[in-house]
Automatic annotation (TrEMBL):
List of catalytic residues: 114, 144 (proton donor/acceptor), 229 (proton acceptor)
GO BP terms: base-excision repair; DNA recombination
Protein name: exodeoxyribonuclease III
Catalytic activity entry: Exonucleolytic cleavage in the 3'- to 5'-direction to yield nucleoside 5'-phosphates
Family to which the UniProt record says this protein belongs: Belongs to the DNA repair enzymes AP/ExoA family.
Residues noted as binding Mg(2+) in the record, renumbered to the chain: 13, 42, 144, 146, 228-229
Cofactor dependency: Mg(2+); Mn(2+)
Claim: Metal-binding is one of the keywords in the record: yes
UniProt xrefs under Pfam families: Exo_endo_phos
Domain Endonuclease/exonuclease/phosphatase: 10-229
Length: 242
């Protein structure tokens, strides 16, 4: 981990993990980033193939995968962290996984989401409604939401303002804030390039509850050379509960 007082959460859309070479690249990259919690989206691993993911030092791995090679999410937790899991909720198609429990004796909930392209807003509406009773002031939501949360999250000015307003209405109702934007203000930085549209966007996010007791002191976008997405990395103080 980044230090005795830090809790580091890293999230990245890996764009597939079925290649042994790529799995090795991802494992080496995770070790170099040294997060407490690492959340992956689009693993493309079927339910019977998740055993293939092995990262030395991150042996606690929780998956949600479907029956075909698409979607798929995973949460890896450092062996240095003391972990207690009280609840796991998995999407049967592998689009989200929720862990509720504690890390180093402090309560936390992690919701890792992959919102499918082309239906992201409706997907988020449906799934966050299903999970709303589990989302509280201990919750961090991470993942590839396939949505910009601000006009600043797009490199062009042709943003869907109605969509941005709607997704923020949903998140505000749950008390969730974009932690990267909170710390980086009006800065423009992106996690994904769409060759089809010729635009850059920040569609990968780490969100925290507005009453989250942990203090997010750093949020950055880091390169993930093996994917078409870059990663989001946030550093919190260690104290989670108050």
């Amino acid at each position: 981990m980044a230090g005795n007082t830090d809790l580091v959460i890293l999230t990245v859309n890996v764009n597939g993990m079925n290649s042994p070479i790529k799995r090795r690249q991802i494992a080496d990259w995770i070790k170099s980033q040294n997060p407490t919690i690492c959340c992956l989206q689009e693993t493309h691993l079927k339910q019977g193939d998740t055993y293939r993911v092995k990262v030395k030092g991150w042996s606690k791995i929780y998956y949600a995968s479907g029956e075909v090679k698409k979607a798929g999410v995973a949460i890896l937790i450092s062996d240095q962290a003391k972990v207690k899991i009280d609840l796991i909720k998995r999407d049967k198609e592998g689009n989200y996984i929720l862990l509720k429990g504690s890390i180093n004796n402090e309560a936390i909930s992690i919701l890792n989401i992959y919102a499918p392209s082309g239906m992201a807003l409706n997907f988020l509406k449906e799934k966050l409604r299903e999970l709303q009773e589990e989302i509280d002031n201990k919750t961090v939501i991470v993942g590839d939401l396939n949505l910009a949360l601000s006009e600043l999250d797009k490199s062009n000015h042709k943003t869907n303002k109605k969509e941005i307003k709607e997704v923020n209405r949903i998140l505000e109702k749950l008390g969730m804030l974009d932690l990267w934007r909170k710390l980086n203000g009006d800065r423009r930085e992106y996690t994904f390039f769409s060759a089809v549209h010729g635009t850059y966007s920040k569609i990968d996010h780490i969100l925290g509850h507005k009453d989250l007791k942990i203090k997010c002191k750093k949020a950055e976008i880091v390169n993930a050379f093996f994917s078409d997405h870059d990663a989001i990395k946030t550093t919190f103080n260690k104290k989670l509960g108050g």
